Phytanoyl-CoA hydroxylase-interacting protein-like
Amino acid sequence: REHHGNAMPPSVKDNSGSHGSPISGKLEGIFFSCNTEFNTGKPPQDSPYGRYRFEIAAEKLFNPNTNLYFGDFYCMYTAYHYVILVIAPLGSPGDEFCKQRLPQLNIKDNKFLTCDEEDGVMVYHHAQDVILEVIYTDPVDLSLGTVAEITGHQLMSLSTANAKKDPSCKTCNISVGR
C-alpha cells in the first residue's frame, strides 16, 4: 500500500504452463483465482494461495470495457486442469500485447468466463470443472476490494512457479498419441 500508492502493481508471469506460451515471462499482470464454491458462489473457505485473500467484485475488473483472451490450458501431473485467461482494459498496453499474441474470447459467450447484462445488472458465469485463473493487466486499486484472513485451512500450495506441465496428458497436449 505504501510503496505503490494503494495499488497492486502487475508483475511478469512466470514460466509455468505450456511450453512456448506467448505470455510466460513476458505479460505483466495480477493473478486472480475465479474458483467459487458450487453451492454458494462465494470463494472457497480453504485456500492454496495463502492465509490472506484480496476479494474484489467481478465487475471492477471484467466488464464491457475489457477484452478477454485465452492464455493457457494445462495440467501439472494431477487430474485438475488449469485455464489461464487474460482480462485487459480496452486499449491498455496489456490489451495491445494480447491482441498480437492470444485468441480473443467473446465476453458473452465462451466456455470459461462470461459477463452479460440482464435486466440492467451484470451477470457472471465461470467454468466449474477447471482451476480458473485470470491475469488482469493493469494495476488494481486496493480500495476497490477487501483483504481478509481465510476462514478455512491453508491448503498445499498451488503455486506453479517454474513448474512444468505433464507432457503425457492426452487432454491438454494436442501432439500426444500422434
Remarks:
- The radius of gyration is 16 Å.
- The chain has a mean pLDDT of 86.
- Residues 93-99 form the longest helix (7 residues).
